[in-house]
Structure formats: structure tokens, C-alpha cells
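Final report, closing paragraph on structural work. Over the funding period we assembled a curated collection of sequence-structure pairs, and we close with a single example.
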Amino acid sequence: MGEDIMGKIALLGEDTINKIAAGEVIDRPASVVKELMENSIDAEATSITVEVKNGGKALISVIDNGFGIMREDIPYLFERHATSKIKTIDDLNEIYTLGFRGEAMSSIAAVADIELESQSDEDILGTRIVIHSGKVIEKKEISTSIGTVIKVKNLFHSIPARLKFLKSDKTELNYITDIVEKIALSNTHIAVKYIVDDDIIFHTPGNGDLLSVIQCIYGIKSAKLMLPVNYSNDLLSIKGYISKPEFNKGNSKHILFSINGRIVKNNLLKEAARTAYKTLLMNKRYPITILNICIDPEKIDVNVHPTKAEVKFADDRSIFNLVYHSIYQTLSNNNLIYEGNFDDNNAINLNEHSLEKTIIMNNKGNRAYSLFEKDELSYQSINYDQSNYDYNVQEKNNSIIVGDKSYTKKSSKEIIKGKVIGQIFDTYIVYQTEDSFFIIDQHAAHERILYEELIDNTKNRSIEKQPLLMPIIIELTPKEKYIIDRYKNVLFDLGFDLEFFGEKSLAIRQVPIIKGEPCSGFMITSLLDTIENYKNDLTSIYDKTIIELACKTAIKANNNLTEKEAEELIIQLFNSKQPYTCPHGRPTMISFTRNELEKKFKRIV
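Its predicted structure, as stored:
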């Protein structure tokens, strides 16, 4: 009789299944912190204390004053897919709680030791339960306060392979800190105390004021560089804070969005924020945005990933447009001049007025050169080709039209009387007003002026052009010839008329006129480099090429200006749609107050 042939497929043991499943939800200490804090939030806690030791590997403790866990529910607490949040699949359409899968507690118990004490507001006594290596070793009734205390110890001690691949304590702590900060910022009604290795890192007040939480986490000075956002329509509401351009970071992790109180990852939202800051920030610099979007749960899907960190929208295009609009409107309505404080400890008035929109330029205080009025709402149309999201804004009858919504434009007529004092290093213009003075970078200022003029003229196809009596001949590399052949329409729209001359040469027969001066035909080589860098994005090609053209033709540093030229430059700058930065994102001006100057000279204390 032949031997039985054993198959290769075998059923895994329950312990192995639980540990594998736990890996989908709990991949590092920060995951534990996230799940436990979200449970506290769902329990309607108004106070949460998070304590960690050794990067969360030795201890993660979360204490809350929520409604606690009923004694009858304790036996089901660590069972997979046991939850009080939903009953059927249909409940996912109206989910408001942060947790709903019923996987977190069982996953944590599978990979760590747990001590839990909890009492619900419906029980006379509470419960203490201790779990080691997935087994209950202690369970008893106790007298304790309403709420829950849970301590997670020795994380991944039973899974050496997982423990081995954790990062250093410092790195894991950074992940935890990121989670705690985000949850505190999106739950301002909860007082969050964060303790690391017995040191209190921050303690938020829990008073519902987001700016107070920002101050606790980022510091007082940073909080004073934030601008409030408040927008709503029939689809959603957007509330929170965004940073002035001078307060920025080297990565995008501080662009935070929460949906109905849940911090989420969504590249669409991040791109909307970055697009709104277009030309206000330098390359590879990112704003700080902390915005909560309240929306009907039926319009979103949070059941995308085990961590529930990702979200999908039923109408991506509308969400992109409205997030962009809310941020851009806020930036347009506020003073974005960089504060040139002499002392970093000086306080900045949180209630500072927006930069006056109307300016009278005076020559030595006795003659007005220009008087103009700026609208509080100023918009540019963009076409975001990369993700196929269009943001089109129109102006009509003193109104701003965004999609099917209309917003009344407001205007102010606040007057600043000022005068040009002179130049510093033939590069910076000093402009004095009654109570302050500005130092203006003449090159950055002229760049902004030329950029906006070129944008408008390109859009309206009204760029002035100058035919050349003798064409300029430029030798081309094979790559340059290919770029011109593919993107010649871009150069044509900017006012260049060119054709190939032989196999390796280019004949330039016409150049654009910028501010009355013909552009150099030899600038083509520099523009080709810009086009090459952005060849996969037509919208960026146009924008970056225009920025390059503005940069190359703007007034340079070390260029002496007459008083009249400096005055005219400042008039044109403040008449720009966005006068605060050059199109590369560098500041055009820095402001100093008279009060700051007198403090520096000890005239006042």
C-alpha cells in the first residue's frame, strides 16, 4: 500500500493568525498610541494623558475620563471584530466614530502585555484586567474613577522579528509625537497631556481654541504667524489655521487635514493647499495648514485602509476647488509682509490689521504720485492639469463667481502716507511710513511686477513683440532642438518668433517687449533649461518659463535707482495682486516698526 501524500497547505493556529492580523493594524508604537487615543475620543473623553517610555517599546499609557467600559463588555473587549461602533455594514455610511472595525484591542493584546482599569458611568464598580502573552492572568473588580486607564508594555516582545525592525527609540518617539500632536490639533475640546520619559512635553487646555493648541505645540511666536480659515457652503465647512508664508517647513508633514475630526492622508488635499501658496513659498518649502473639514459621511469613504488614515471623496473636483478657494481667499485677505523683528522674542500683535490696500506715495511728504484701491478678494485663474482639477474664478458685477457660488467683493480705503528714504547697497529700497518702515528688495519686487504682467498678457495674448532687423542665430544641442520642436508654442505665446536654421541652429526673428525694452534673444537657452525641468507638466512649463523670463529681465541687485524710479517701483509693487513675495517665493519686503527700533536704542523698554 502506498504512503499517504501530505499536502502543503495547513491551517494556521489561532495565535499565529492573531499576530499576523495584528501586523496590519499595529506596525509600530505610534499605531498603539493612535488606536488608544481614538478609543478615548470615541468614549467622549475631555481629558487624555499619554505617557511613553523608551520610544513606546517599554510603556505606552493612555488615561482618559471618557464614559468607560461596561463590566458586561469586558469579556468581548479583546476579541477580534468586537465593537460597539457599528452593527451592520450599512452603518458605515453614517460613521462618525474614529474606530469601527473592532480590531485595535485584539491586535494590541496579541503583540504586547496589557494592564487595563476602567469603570463606566453605569456601573458601581470598575474592572481591572491584566493580559500577558495574549492570556488573561488577572481579572477583578476595583473601585476607580469613571474612565479608562490602559498600559501597554513590552511591545512586540513575543515577536522578535517585528521588534528587530523597529527604529531607534528617538525615531519611534518622533512617530508617536507626530500622532499625539495631530490628534491634539484635531480635537481642541480635549485637554491632551503628553509625557515622555517623565517629562511633560505639552499640555493643551481643552478649551476648543485651535490657536491655543498651536501655541502649545509650535510655540507662541509661531502661533502669531497663523491666519484663521473659516469657510462653509452646502457641501462642507472648512475651519482652522494656515501659516503666513514666512512660517514654513522643509517637508509637507505639517499640512494637516482632518475629516469630521479624523486626521487623514489625502494627496488631493495637500496639493490643493500647495497650489494655493503658489509663488508665495520657495522651492521645496511647505506651509503649515491645520484644517478640519466637516462633511456628510455619505460623501466620503474612510473604510479604505486598516489604519483608517486614508479617505476617498465622492466628488474630488469640488473638494479640491473649495479647499484651494478657502486657503487662497485667506491669503488674499491678509497682510503677508515678512516681519523683520530685531528681537526674536518680540511679540507680534495677533490682531494686527491687514496691510492697507490703498497707498499714497509722497515725495518728501508733499506730493502724491499715485492713489489706487485694491480689492480685499483677489483671485487668479489656474488650470491644475496634473490631477485634472480645474479651479476657475470669474469676476462679475462686483462679485466673485466660484462654480455656482457668488461672493461679494469688499474693498477698503485705508491710506498710508510714505516716502522713499533711499537705497541700501544699491539693492534694497527703504520706504518709510508714519509708524514703520519697509526694506524692499528691488529685484524681487520687479520680478513680481513683471511676472503678473506677463501672466496677464500671455493669457490675453497681448504681449508686445519686436521684430529683429537681423535674426539671432543660436547653435543647438540635439536635446535643445527636440525641446524647441515639441514646445515651440510656449515660446511663441511668450512673444518669440523662431525657426530652425540648418540642422543645428535656431534663428530668432522676434522677441517680446517687456516694460518697453526688447528681451534678449539669447535668453532662449535659459528658457529651454526651464522647460526641460518641467517637461511633463504643461501648466508648470508656462508658469516656470514666465517666472524665468521675469527674473532675467527684472532690475538687478547693485543697480542704482533714482528716487523717482524707486517710487514708481513701489507703486507698481503694491498695486500687484500678491505683492509680498517674488514668484520664486522670496519676500519682496520686510517691515520694521518704529517701536521695535526705539526698543533697540533703549528709548523705550
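Residues 210-338 form a domain with the Ribosomal Protein S5; domain 2 fold (CATH 3.30.230.10). The chain has four domains: 14-203, 210-338, 358-452+557-600, 463-553. We thank the funder for supporting this effort.
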